[in-house]
């Protein structure tokens, strides 16, 4: 009867080996972020019910005619992960950014957009937001959420000064960015958010940023452009982008729910802060529907909104103190992660770090779990490791038993006795 037992052991061994090979492959498949599609994008936290049209960052430069981003016909059903991560519901109990003006340098902002009406001043062609990204970002900074208050921006009491830093298709231009920074300074903006990143240093832009900071503005800029959607596949070397590389500018990068930068993010040095930049919900310049957007510009908008909330709460703080507050209160990680609530409520020491034993301006805040996705990923990883270990143990036991029986081994007490 040994042949059937040997056959069964071999069958179990083969099945276990297949399971062991499949288990490690299953975890990365769940952890991979969803890639954007032209039609609808799923929420970054993987939960159902948030499939919305994607908000582009730029229109096709090769198209003969400029076709603006159409109105979304979909409405978000719930608050997205990014607002929960930044604890905006509690933040708004302490600061809404009232009395603060944020200059947004992007593709423009529609002054009549839902949730922004009556609080946007658009200079020149900035009122024409064909791409839609600028209006999307303005909603993250200072939108009221319109009929969905839980989708309000970080500083819904702030005002927006809309300025163009791109052409109508969304392509950044150094001369336009420079002119926009100067216009923001002339307009006495408290915070200047530069949602574009330029690959080369520009002397005129350097001077404009220095003048803005001298005038007391907090300058927040995208640390990198968004990675190209098409390319040769060659690795892009690390480099500095502008004006994020200018002294005193808060350079912001995007992060996923788990806290890591997205796959394919452009490498750079000198990132000061990371903020949510995937699966984020906001409105657009046409209609009352919602979109899903992501990227470094989205993270920059969130950081700019947090700066506005801080300026409203600490109006006497100079711009450098506001920047230091945002970085000192960030959640500690490889890249410090923006914590808007802590930035507003934490009592800082003289050196800019939280004072020893100091209490928050309101109630104390414990360090929260970064997101449900973090916990899900941790559980999945633990399951894979334990499952793999168990399967490998069974494999080894089955293999050893098969070999031992093939050589005539018997357990103690089961052999024949000689009289």
Automatic annotation (TrEMBL):
GO terms for biological process: proteolysis. Keywords: Hydrolase, Membrane, Protease, Serine protease, Signal, Transmembrane, Transmembrane helix. Residues 97-333 form the Peptidase S8/S53 domain. InterPro entries: Peptidase_S8/S53_dom, Peptidase_S8/S53_dom_sf, Peptidase_S8_subtilisin-like, Peptidase_S8_subtilisin-rel. The chain crosses the membrane at residues 380-401. One of its GO terms (molecular function) is serine-type endopeptidase activity. This is S8 family serine peptidase. It comes from Streptomyces arboris.
């Amino acid at each position: 009867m040994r042949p059937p037992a040997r056959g069964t052991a071999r069958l179990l061994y083969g099945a276990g080996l297949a399971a062991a090979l499949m288990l490690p492959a299953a975890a990365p498949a769940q952890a991979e972020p969803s890639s954007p599609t032209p039609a609808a994008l799923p929420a970054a936290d993987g939960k159902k019910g948030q499939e919305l049209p994607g908000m582009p960052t730029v229109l096709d430069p090769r198209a003969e005619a400029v076709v603006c981003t159409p109105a979304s016909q979909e409405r978000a059903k719930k608050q997205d992960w990014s607002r929960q991560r930044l604890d905006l519901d509690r933040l708004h109990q302490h600061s809404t950014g009232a009395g603060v003006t944020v200059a947004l340098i992007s593709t423009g902002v529609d002054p009549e957009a839902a949730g922004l009406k009556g609080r946007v001043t658009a200079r020149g062609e900035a009122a024409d937001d064909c791409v839609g990204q600028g209006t999307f970002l303005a909603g993250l900074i200072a939108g009221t959420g319109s009929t969905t208050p839980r989708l309000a921006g970080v500083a819904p009491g702030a005002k927006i000064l809309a300025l163009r830093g791109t052409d109508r298709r969304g392509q950044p231009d150094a001369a336009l960015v420079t002119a926009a920074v100067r216009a923001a300074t002339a307009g006495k903006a408290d915070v200047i958010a530069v949602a574009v990143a330029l690959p080369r240093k520009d002397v005129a832009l350097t001077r404009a940023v220095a003048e803005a900071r001298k005038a007391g503005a907090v300058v927040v800029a995208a640390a990198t452009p968004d990675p190209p959607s098409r390319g040769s596949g060659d690795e892009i070397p690390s480099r500095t982008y502008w004006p994020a590389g200018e002294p005193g500018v808060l350079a912001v990068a995007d992060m996923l729910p788990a806290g890591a930068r997205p796959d394919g993010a452009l490498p750079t040095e000198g990132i000061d802060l990371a903020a949510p930049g995937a699966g984020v919900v906001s409105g657009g310049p046409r209609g009352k529907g919602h979109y899903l957007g992501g990227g470094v510009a989205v993270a920059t908008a969130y950081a700019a909104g947090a700066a506005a909330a801080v300026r409203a709460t600490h109006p006497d703080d100079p711009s450098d103190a506001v920047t230091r507050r945002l970085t000192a209160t960030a959640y500690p990680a490889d890249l410090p992660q923006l914590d808007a609530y802590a930035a507003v409520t934490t009592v800082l020491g003289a050196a800019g770090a939280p004072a020893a034993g100091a209490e928050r301006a309101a109630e104390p805040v414990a360090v929260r779990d970064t997101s449900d996705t973090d916990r899900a990923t941790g559980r999945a990883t633990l399951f894979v490791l334990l499952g793999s270990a168990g399967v490998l143990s069974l494999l080894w036991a089955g293999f050893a038993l098969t070999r031992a029986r093939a050589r005539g081994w018997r357990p103690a007490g089961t052999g024949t006795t000689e009289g």
